[in-house]
Design brief:
heterodimer, A: 357 residues, mainly alpha, two-stranded antiparallel ribbon, B: 276 residues, alpha/beta, Rossmann fold, AAA+_ATPase (chain B), ATP-binding (chain B)
Chain lengths: 357, 276
């Protein structure tokens, strides 16, 4: 049963390739079939997918639920606004910005990179302070971070325009652009999970005490994942800003936090496949209920669900999944093809027989 | 890896103990010097002195609550002693974390196994390699080598959570043995095992000092296994050392017999039986 190294490599590459192909094919089909409305929904979903996959880099591998990552999204989004808005507007409204930002307008990719880097930097400082904590204590600290970001950005008049909207951000993100970033995020998440850092972090998630006895510095491996995760979510924020063209602080607070966490939990926190499946499943679910709230015409009568049904239904669906499938729709496993491995007593999902040796 | 050919079958006689970029642990001794641990007003261990040397197996026995695991926690950085010192190669280890101890060559296993249940068997062992600074590729090849030595190579890809518990203990030992630590501390590896299973474990434990040139501390309640495996035995009761000596001396020691008599009757019977 010893595999050749190339067989192992192929087996390792299979899940990311399958997941990325699946996302790409779904996107292409939906864009080709749908109209402009659907194309907006698809772009939004793909940006959320980038954020959820980014979130899963930390949450999935460390086992610590973070309520703070939407704070990184906020940080990234505002960097995009600072970088790309019309200089005349910035000089008028955002007088506290450094002159360099006030007087210039930077291209799309510079804004994306800047947002990711600032989010990662803030993640480094925050993570160094709070990642000694474990479990619910760490989660509460991340929640405090979300509240701090919200408060700072709601009140820093001269830099964030406080609670007023920032308008006139050039709209650059279309479905295929969003797809490219979502695929990158998926590739990064799969890659990180299999690095030695990712392996040590997953070990610490299963048993922190035993991980320390194996020489693992838990703070260090958590911090690496936290910074990488903040970077990807920050990039997601820059995409969000350059998709909507308008920003307000309150976009990045509790509803967004709970929606992204719901997507991760529904799909399965422990796997990248879970993040992808969860994002798609929750989006489809929400869209269906929104359509029904809008009214479905059957013959001469129109049936409409009361407003707010969608939120209630999503809550019920999440509760049901937590009760019956606590590890999510994917049971926190990666996508693989099944192979009979009864002889070895292997209980995992194997690779196709043709790829083993 | 050193391989020998016996009757045409390739056998692994000794898994690798070095890898580029990892310092070979050289410490010759691990000592607890007069250590005490207090939790609030309660003394878990008091003024215990114990020395482990490379190449030897020391048994640590005592009734439940005697402080055996607390002592192991002190020797591996999981518990700082309230008084006294832990010396590795005669140098103090004040302020060392558990991971620091492991990198300096002090490895341990746990009573409950504590495997990484969502990882495969080979990944469980790879984690130690990664923790010691190896690349995944290198860690994996060393882990597979060690599994072959333990004759567990057919289980390499099994999820650790799905193992039978005798295998679970062996994987726990393999995780601690990667890259040949200077000292290995085994916390009740035979708990719940049948006689045949613990005999098998005993021969494995006896092979470790020769194969890895390391010193072993064995905590165990199974007296048959302790007497059979260890060269010297250290006895704790209520956190204090009550005896130290060879298995033969310990079996005759009045204080030891009394401490087990005061505890559980079954344990006392076991000792009496083994004495004959």
């Amino acid at each position: 049963m010893i595999e050749t190294p190339s067989g192992r490599l192929l087996r390792g590459l299979l899940p990311p390739v399958l997941v990325m192909l699946g996302v790409a094919i779904l996107t292409v089909i939906a864009v080709q079939l749908g109209g402009d409305d659907l194309s907006l929904t698809i772009t939004e979903t793909l940006i959320r997918l980038t954020v959820v996959v980014g979130l899963s880099i930390f949450v999935g591998n460390s086992g610590i639920v973070s309520f703070g990552h939407i704070g990184f999204m906020c940080i990234g989004a505002y960097v995009a606004a600072w970088a790309t808005c019309n200089p005349m507007w910035k000089q008028l409204m955002l007088t506290g910005l450094p002159t360099m930002l006030q007087e210039n307008q930077y291209p799309f990719l510079v804004a994306v990179a800047g947002g990711g880097i600032l989010a990662a930097f803030v993640g480094l400082i925050l993570g160094a302070a709070i990642l000694r904590l474990s479990g619910i204590a760490a989660s509460i600290a991340t929640f405090a971070f979300l509240a701090i970001v919200n408060n700072v950005y709601s009140n820093w008049d001269t830099v964030t325009a406080a609670t007023s909207s920032i308008i006139g951000i050039p709209v650059e993100v279309d479905p295929y652009m969003a797809l490219a970033f979502a695929l990158c995020a998926i590739a990064i998440a799969f890659w990180f999970k299999d690095t030695r850092m990712g392996l040590m972090l997953r070990a610490s998630r299963d048993d922190g005490v035993a991980a320390r006895a194996s020489g693992v510095s838990i703070l260090k491996v958590r911090l690496v994942a936290f910074v990488l995760s903040a970077f990807v979510v920050g990039v997601g924020g820059t995409l969000w800003a350059q998709f909507l063209g308008v920003l307000t602080v309150d976009m990045f607070y509790l509803p967004m936090t709970f929606m992204t966490l719901a997507m991760l939990i529904v799909g399965g926190m422990g796997s990248v496949t879970g993040a992808v499946v969860g994002t798609i499943a929750v989006t489809v679910f929400v869209q269906l209920f929104r359509a029904m709230e809008g009214g479905v015409t059957v013959g001469a009568t129109t049936f409409a669900l009361p407003q707010g049904t969608q939120e209630i239904a999503l809550g019920i669906a999440m509760a049901l999944i937590l009760i019956f499938l606590p590890a999510g729709l994917t049971r926190s496993r990666e996508l693989r093809l099944r192979r009979q491995r009864a002889a070895t007593g292997d209980t995992g999902l194997g690779a196709p027989a043709s790829l083993g040796s | 890896m050193i391989t020998a050919y016996a009757g045409g079958v390739e056998m692994i006689t000794r898994p690798s103990r070095t890898a580029p970029g990892v310092d070979q642990p050289l410490a010759a001794s691990l000592r607890a010097e007069n250590i005490s641990v207090r939790f609030g007003g309660l003394a878990a261990i008091s003024e215990v002195t114990l020395a482990l040397e490379r190449g030897h197996i020391l048994g640590l026995i005592g009734p439940n609550g005697a402080g055996k695991t607390t002592l192991v926690n002190c020797l591996t950085g999981f518990q700082a002693p309230t008084h006294g010192r832990v010396l590795l190669a005669d140098a103090p280890t004040l302020g060392w974390t558990a991971e620091h101890f492991r990198r300096a060559g002090v490895a341990r296993t746990f009573q409950a196994g504590r495997l990484f249940k969502a990882l495969s068997v080979v990944e469980n062992i790879e984690v130690t390699g990664a923790g010691l600074g190896l690349s995944r590729r290198r860690a994996r090849s060393l882990a597979l080598e060690l599994l072959a030595w333990l004759k567990l190579d057919d289980k390499a890809e099994t999820l650790a959570g799905a193992l039978a518990y005798t295998d679970e203990r062996r994987v726990g030992i393999a995780r601690a043995l990667l890259l040949g630590p200077a000292f290995l501390l085994l916390d009740e590896p035979a708990a719940g095992m049948s006689d045949a299973e613990s005999d098998e474990l005993s021969s494995l434990v006896k092979a470790i000092p020769k194969t890895f040139e390391c010193g072993v501390l064995l905590i165990e309640h199974n007296m048959r296994m302790v007497m059979d495996t260890c060269e010297m035995i250290h006895v704790l009761d209520s956190g204090r050392t009550i005896a130290e000596g060879t298995p033969a001396q310990i079996q005759k020691n009045k204080a030891v017999i009394a401490s087990y008599l005061g505890g559980e009757g079954e344990k006392q019977l076991e000792i009496m039986e083994e004495g004959h």
